[in-house]
Each structure stands twice: as structure tokens, then as C-alpha cells.
Design a protein that fits this description.
It is elongated and about 75 Å long. Helix 3 packs parallel to helix 5 and helix 4 crosses helix 5. The protein contains ten helices and 14 strands. The protein folds into two domains: 212 residues, 3-Layer(aba) Sandwich (Rossmann fold); 60 residues, Alpha-Beta Plaits. The structure holds adenosine-5'-triphosphate.
């Protein structure tokens, strides 16, 4: 994508007590996309998010939000983020609306009209004047999201928002996150340890394993099936070394057992083939070893059922 990213993580690393918890994680989140951060428990999702919102310092690397470095321009970066990292603090004896008015006081730019708008967006209009103590978990969470987006952040970060929600609650969450992305152009960064939920909610998913990012994938459609997209493509060519030279800059290209191997989706396979042929390389065969997101996630989790 050629758009300017809303969030950019560059080689983000966190070491605690000599242990590397997050290891050179790099990724970009684009305007209006719902980006999933998928990994088994303990893989480092929360730690990464804590660094993104400035709750924890990085050991090295950098994160920018809306073009502002979290390290060097924290107030500017923070103003572009809305997040629910731990359970949102809400006053249970107040109504949902009173809670929002209370939080809006801290930011004079938030008007009553804006409050009404976010209430509608998260689907709480009918119950916003009920006391929060009467709310279900899903409703409390929606109120938390309403609070987090009142100041029109470019990026909304949600850490494991589906925890404890029933399937209907998850579907609702998916619907209003999508709406948020579409109507307000807000990008959403959402973590989960459940692949099935990520497939329902996200445009792209990054898989984190033991603090390392092992893949970033697009998800096509909302049918619950992961696109069999990027994978290893093997090119059988007459001069592998020359072919590798031609593909300089195509990050993943390497030679394996005399074959030119690279990570590519269908378009990139076609494009690579064209480049090679045009450069005078003879291509005898192309094999694509695509792995579904599910295959890959099962490898990461060792086939264990997580949940
Ligand atoms: N302050 C800390 N000191 C030492 N180790 C930590 C600290 N914070 C996190 N860790 C370790 O870092 C690893 C990643 O933790 P993290 O909570 O980020 O994972 P997670 O993917 O969010 O998992 P979960 O879904 O279980 O919260 C874990 O092994 C955890 O024990």
C-alpha cells in the first residue's frame, strides 16, 4: 500500500531482565483498516500495545502514530490514539451518558453532538441513560469504545476486546468496528488469541509468536475463511544467482536447493516471473506453497486449542 500509515512500528524491541519479550517487531497500520494482532497467550501482544500507548518504554526501535514518534513527541502521538488496554474505568452508579459527559470534560473540543454521535456509532442509543451497573459486559465495552473515540483519534487500540463476549457480542463488536473504520476513517488495532475472531473482524492480521512477528496477511471477505494468499513461491530458473541479482530489493528472495525462493502472493508471483523473463532468465517452472492463515497459526500454537 502506498498510503501513509497511521501507525508504524519499526524494529520495536523490549528486553526485561535480560529476556527479549518483543524482538524487532515492524508493522504498519493504514487509514481505515481493522488490523488484527494475533498471538497465543504470552506471545507479547499486551507488551507491544503498552509500548504503543506509551505505558511502557521501548528498549530499542520506534513507534510513530499519525507521523509522531511515541518516544520524541509523546503528547502529539498520544492525542491521535484512543485505547482500551485494561478494563475501562467507568462509574457504575452513573449512566452511560453521564460517564461520557464526565470524560468529555477533560477535552473541551468534545461537544454534546459528538457524544451523541459516538453513542449511536457503538449502538448504545437505546440504553445510554441506564446506569452502567445494569450494563452487560458487551455494553460496558461499547461504552469504553465510545469514550476512547470521542476525541476522533486516528487509531483505536483494543487489547483482547472479545474476552468474555458471547458470539452475538463478538458480531456486534465486529459491526461497529467496521462502521468506525468506514464512517470515521479510524484505523483499529485489535489483539486476540483467537484466529476465528480475527478472521471475522480484520482486514489484515499479523501473527506474533514469542515476541517475533512471523507473518502479516490480508483477509479477504467476511466469510470466516482465511485467504490462501502469500506463501513460499519456488522458481526453477536457468541461472538462480543471476535471477537473485535481478530481484535485489525484493526482501525475501533467496536460493534454496538451487531454486529461487521468495514469499509472494499471486500478483507478486506473476510480477516476478515477468521481471525475470524480461531480464533474459529462462523460467522452467513455478510452484507456490501457500499456507492458510489457519495452518500457520496452528504451527505457532503447536496445534493446541487456545481459548
Ligand atoms: N513486566 C514484566 N516483567 C517480566 N516479564 C514480563 C513483563 N511483562 C510481560 N512479561 C512477559 O512477557 C511475555 C509477553 O507477555 P504479554 O502479556 O505481552 O503477552 P500477551 O501476548 O499479551 O499474552 P496474554 O494474552 O496472556 O496477555 C510473557 O512471557 C510475560 O511473562
Amino acid at each position: 500500500m502506498s498510503q501513509t500509515p497511521v501507525a508504524r512500528l519499526q524494529d520495536v524491541t523490549k528486553r526485561i531482565g535480560g529476556r527479549t519479550i518483543i524482538d524487532r517487531v515492524s508493522l504498519e497500520v493504514y487509514p481505515g483498516e481493522v488490523f488484527g494482532f494475533l498471538g497465543p497467550n504470552g506471545s507479547g501482544k499486551t507488551t507491544t500495545i503498552r509500548m504503543m500507548v506509551g505505558l511502557m518504554a521501548m528498549t530499542s526501535g520506534d513507534i510513530s502514530i499519525g507521523g509522531h514518534s511515541v518516544k520524541r513527541e509523546y503528547p502529539k502521538a498520544a492525542s491521535q490514539v484512543g485505547a482500551i488496554v485494561e478494563n475501562p474505568e467507568m462509574y457504575k452508579y452513573l449512566t452511560g451518558y453521564q460517564n461520557l459527559v464526565h470524560f468529555a470534560r477533560m477535552n473541551p473540543s468534545i461537544t454534546r453532538q459528538r457524544i451523541d454521535e459516538v453513542v449511536k456509532l457503538v449502538g448504545l442509543s437505546g440504553r445510554i441513560h441506564d446506569k452502567v451497573r445494569k450494563y452487560s459486559l458487551g455494553m460496558r465495552q461499547r461504552l469504553g469504545v465510545a469514550q476512547a473515540i470521542m476525541h476522533r483519534p486516528k487509531l483505536l487500540i483494543l487489547d483482547e476486546p472479545t474476552n468474555g463476549l458471547d458470539p452475538a457480542g463478538i458480531r456486534e463488536l465486529r459491526d461497529y468496528l467496521r462502521q468506525l473504520a468506514q464512517e470515521e476513517g479510524t484505523s483499529v488495532f485489535v489483539s486476540s488469541h483467537l484466529l476465528s475472531e480475527m478472521e471475522l473482524m480484520c482486514d489484515r492480521v499479523a501473527i506474533l509468536q514469542k515476541g517475533q512477528l512471523i507473518d502479516i496477511r490480508s483477509i479477504r471477505g467476511e466469510t470466516g475463511t482465511a485467504a490462501k494468499e502469500a506463501g513460499e513461491a519456488l522458481f526453477e530458473v536457468d541461472h538462480p544467482d543471476a535471477a537473485l541479482g535481478i530481484l535485489q530489493g525484493q526482501g525475501s528472495a533467496r536460493i534454496v536447493d538451487g531454486l529461487l525462493q521468495l514469499t509472494a502472493d499471486r500478483d507478486l508471483i506473476a510480477e516476478t516471473n515477468k521481471r525475470l523473463v524480461e531480464a533474459g532468465i529462462r523460467v522452467y517452472g513455478i510452484r507456490a506453497k501457500t499456507k492458510s492463515l489457519e495452518d500457520q497459526f496452528l504451527e505457532v500454537t503447536g496445534g493446541e486449542t487456545v481459548g
